[in-house]
Amino acid sequence: YLLLKPPPPKICGTRRGPPITAPRIRLRDGRYMAYKEQGVPKDLAKHKVIFVHPFSGSRHSLLQISQEVLEGLSVYMVAFDRAGYGESDPFPERSVKSEALDIQELADQLQLGQKFYVVGLSMGGYPCWACLKHIPHRLAGVAMMAPVVNYWWPSASKEISGEAFSSRPLGDKITLRIAHYAPWLMHTWSKQTFLPSFLNGIGKEKFMNKMDLEITAARKNAGIPHQETAIQQGTSESLHRDLAVGFGKWDFFLANAGVPVHVFQGDEDNLVPVSIQRHVAEKLPWINYHELPGVGHLLDFVPGLNDKVLTTLLAS
């Protein structure tokens, strides 16, 4: 039992937790959510954009957009720590729907208006799908960069999902199965080091394409700021809960939400198989699908791409 039970999270602002350094809002259920802003002042902005960070990321993962684009298009952007990450309170009842409702409440409390844009990166893609399902009336448009696809999602065929899933390394397949079928085992499984997986980070370079390897090497040399603070409250309510929700049971199919939706995907992405992304784009023809030749998974570090994603989204 002790091996299976994760330690309690270290809540920010408590005696045993990290300090509070970010601006935060208080949600209706009493949780606190931290956020970070960039761009022009929101009162002057023509476009308001909410950014959803990836797995093991935080509000500091906010896309690096050139000042020329932010000012030229009059854009206000805000990123937030999803529940359990950074300085946002954990939420054990977290679900796909709660991710969308958290985004909606952030927009309301920051007074972003009736309509706003949402941009998600990697694991930050599933909250974007959630927004399209649960709050489509609030969206001006959505862009997803290498969004992780749930292999058990009804919107993807079992055959295509099975083929994509089988291409994953053994350690990843076990991690994903635990996330879907037995998330209570995740804490114990995360301690293992005999099988490489994206969860323990062992041998991850073997599954990167040339561009991702170059990006990773450059980031290591420069140092990766805020990496530890993303999971400073503990991994059980950040990383592990994220996997359980992102690869859990999604009991919904998506209909056309009537807003522009863009998906950007590298054709050499070894974390999110391009085959399943192509399939989802074909099955949901209202998606504007942009495939990037020679590009891997780390889209936010591809020179010029962040600007392109934002300008494409706002132009549509």
UniProtKB/TrEMBL annotation:
Q: Which Pfam families match?
A: Abhydrolase_6
Regions annotated as coiled coil: none
Spell out the SUPFAM superfamilies in the cross-references.
alpha/beta-Hydrolases
In this chain the AB hydrolase-1 domain maps to 49-299
Q: What is this protein called?
A: AB hydrolase-1 domain-containing protein
Q: What is the species of this protein?
A: Selaginella moellendorffii (Spikemoss)
> Lineage from the top down?
Eukaryota, Viridiplantae, Streptophyta, Embryophyta, Tracheophyta
